[in-house]
Amino acid sequence: MKLKVTTNILTANEKIAEGNEKIFADAGVFVLNLMSSPGAGKTSLLEQTIIRLKDRVKVGVIEGDIAGADDAMRIDALGVPVVQINTGGACHLDANMINEVLGDLPIADLDILVIENVGNLVCPAEFKLGEHMKVAVLSITEGHDKPLKYPVMFQESKALIINKIDLKPFLDVDVEKIRRDAISLNPEITIFEVSCKTGEGLDAWVAWIETLIS
Amino acid sequence: MKLKVTTNILTANEKIAEGNEKIFADAGVFVLNLMSSPGAGKTSLLEQTIIRLKDRVKVGVIEGDIAGADDAMRIDALGVPVVQINTGGACHLDANMINEVLGDLPIADLDILVIENVGNLVCPAEFKLGEHMKVAVLSITEGHDKPLKYPVMFQESKALIINKIDLKPFLDVDVEKIRRDAISLNPEITIFEVSCKTGEGLDAWVAWIETLIS
Questions:
Q1: How many CB pairs under 8 A join A and B?
Q2: What is the pTM of this model?
Q3: Which residues of A touch B38 (CB under 8 A)?
Q4: Whether the complex's predicted ipTM surpasses the cut of 0.95
Q5: Theoretical Cys-Cys bridge with B108: which of A108, A180, B27, B205, CB 3.0 to 4.6 Å?
Q6: What confidence tens digit (pLDDT) does each residue in A111-134 have?
Q7: Cβ of B52 under 8 Å from any chain A Cβ?
Q8: Could you tell me the residue ranges of all domains in chain A?
Q9: Which residues of B fall within a CB distance of 8 Å from A38?
Q10: Distance separating alpha carbons of residues A62 and A82, to the nearest angstrom
Q11: Which residues of B138-169 are buried (b: 16+ CB within 10 A; e: fewer)?
């Protein structure tokens, strides 16, 4: 019974996601769904990416949070179009929530639209939004056991950003194990190690994004 | 429509949770539901708590994870009874999952049963398991914006453990803001600052737990 309900929700979501896909294709915008645990650094990564891209690439953002507009205000301060979705309790964005806010963004003028999902290493990976790719962010402070404990996130993502590597000297964390386990779950995954605080590794990530949208 | 489905699941869960409550009352065991984001340190806190309690208090553990048995093996190494639940994709434990494993634990012999939930700062707070209290763990590496962005977790918890305070010198984090926002959401919440790595703050937490089960 519970499984049936879940299946129905996912099927309904998939239909709306297909509609979003068509809207994105018509607008010629590349769409990235950014996912992680709470506090892994999605918004910081987005800020640093926008700063490096915005002179050459037109970026737009949809922020997803259960409550509040802190993240949208951080993005707005960078001068790029942004819409905040409050899910009102739901632990992930779904395709319908995205569909409802597309009219509030100049999507035909954008090169890339980044959707920052609700902080959650589980459910966001199961709900298609109509995006071209999913990207997972994992902070090394979360520990090296995370890929095997939350496999779907790593299986569904085209890239993995391993963030906060500036903290490596102060942690007992095996970053090689994170890489190894992520690749065992998803041999095609592209992995970047970055620090949004020091800037290390961000140029390689931004260059990779540019190859995808050019 | 979507809301209706959710309400039905929550209502069904509540009934089973009431059954669990009765089983726990008959067994005379105090039950704690431990929740956090992935990697905030629930298992480390549990290990450190067991080490400090186990000579005086009989502890049992239910581990909840989407996949794997790493956490149960860590607890088993301490010589306390433990059962691992794999949710097979579900992002939280529910009352029925707990009910199904109670026969695998000597609950009538236990003083305290700790249920370590799936790493997720959202959904676990909404599903009663029949526990006496919920406790939230937040690592300072997750940032000081988390209580206001994930309010239900902090509203539902009787205590908040602020973990990894040994990393404070290396982070731009305002721990006072975490305290202030958690208290604004839940004036009755008891807050502990700890480091499971250095042991700082753990004695106060363990002493508090002992007052609850004595």
A1: 114
A2: 0.93
A3: 37, 121, 142, 146, 149-150
A4: no
A5: B27
A6: 999 999 999 999 999 999 999 999
A7: no
A8: 2-213
A9: 37, 121, 142, 146, 149-150
A10: 6
A11: bbbbbbbbbbbbbbbbbebbbbbbbbbbbbee
